[in-house]
């Protein structure tokens, strides 16, 4: 059997191919096109999945599943939005599905969190400052705070804050209006500010 | 990241009355909407200047609190996986895309040829094994011994395997191989996937979707594994070993780019 070795094409600086041309090349079976799409969007996809799932292994699973689904269901994409928003829609939905399958807690009420969750109770101790927390601990605290949001609020917030999507892009991803995006972001932040209040107090 | 100023003039938010989201509580006031869009960098230059000119002491307090929330999320930013994990993820995506595209697989004449070649090799192996039966070591004269470590793993779809029972006490294995798409022909015929012992792997995750290749063998997992098909085995129930998130074994031999998924299962041969 003859082995075919694919050599990546050199790309001139400043001439990054756009998503459409990469998708065309991917459809033609060019392996490097998939690799470039992955390099381009793996980070926002991972950040979104991580914030929705709370750990690296599950987040990577969701990213993998999202990429596979997005790339094998391009007919559903139909270029009504950008590939980025299409991909993030699939990845975030995959992450939410994975979270449900693997028993991630959902919709923990603030009251329940305050009185029943020792971690979140700790989180409300006023004397603690973010300076005392290392980054891993802070991430855990933020993840738990995010869990107190409704699924819709959390997805909206994460798509905006972690993937850097504009209101319009979030609206496209979630198939909701821009006004709804703003509303969900507003109430998500309001709730997060309440829960994270001890961390948000300026240290002197 | 929580970034400001990402919007362009053409992308600015048109300040129309809010679409009420009944699931999310009360309607935002126009002023809340405006401040929020300002902070998120969603306003065009004119609206942005107008909001800045109208900021009062009260709204400055809100803006400050909002900014501290953004800073907190920046401070606790998600860490990036290692290059090795990214590479593994890409390999899995390539395999997943290839597996989800039956047209390309069916059209791959080399794959079919590899299958025919593997079948011919298997028949030849059986014939050779028969002729050399008497020369085999005693442990290999057991009629249940079907061969050495598998040389070819058959990739089967989830619906080809029934999982009814899993018992970690009976260490056998489901192995899932991930290889780069460029090595698919090897997966289908030539290069054996590595089988590892339970000590070499870490528990990561397991669900029915992970069942792609089913291999049964005696402990230790390495060695004397045989390939089986759906008709050969029945697996009854997944047990979680008393842990909320009992996970399967994911083994990623360093530098091989060929991670393996392996779970302890109890199998029973079908009658």
Question: Using only CA atoms, what is the Rg of chain A?
Answer: 20 Å
Radius of gyration of chain B: 29 Å
Proportion of residues in helical segments of chain B? 25-40%
Provide the β-strand percentage band of chain A.
Answer: under 5%
Compute the number of helices of chain A.
12
**Unreliably modeled segments of chain A:** 1-13, 104-132
Care to give the gist of this entry?
The complex is a heterodimer of chains A (204) and B (271). Chain A has 204 residues and is mainly alpha-helical. Chain A has helices at 19-27, 31-53, 56-72, 74-77, 83-101, 110-116, 118-123, 135-147, 151-161, 167-174, 178-195, 197-200.
Strands, helices and their partners?
The complex is a heterodimer of chains A (204) and B (271).
Chain A: H1 19-27, H2 31-53, H3 56-72, H4 74-77, H5 83-101, H6 110-116, H7 118-123, H8 135-147, H9 151-161, H10 167-174, H11 178-195, H12 197-200
Helix pairs in contact in A: 1-2, 2-3, 2-5, 2-9, 3-5, 5-10, 9-11, 10-11
Chain B: H1 30-39, H2 45-54, H3 57-75, H4 83-99, H5 102-106, H6 109-131, E1 173-177, H7 184-187, E2 202-203, E3 214-217, E4 225-227, E5 233-234, E6 249-251, E7 260-263, E8 268-269
Antiparallel strand pairs in B: 1-3, 1-7, 2-6, 3-4, 5-8, 6-7
Describe this protein's structure.
The complex is a heterodimer of chains A (204) and B (271). Chain A has 12 helices and no strands. With 204 residues, chain A is mainly α. Chain B has 7 helices and 8 strands, in the order H-H-H-H-H-H-E-H-E-E-E-E-E-E-E. Residues 1-25 and 104-271 of chain B have low confidence and may be disordered. Helices cover 32% and strands 9% of the residues of chain B. With 271 residues, chain B is of the alpha+beta class. At the A-B interface, helix 2, helix 3, helix 8, helix 9 and helix 11 of A face helix 1, helix 3 and helix 4 of B.
Short descriptors:
heterodimer; A: 204 residues; mainly alpha; 68% helix; 0% strand; B: alpha+beta; 7 helices; disordered C terminus
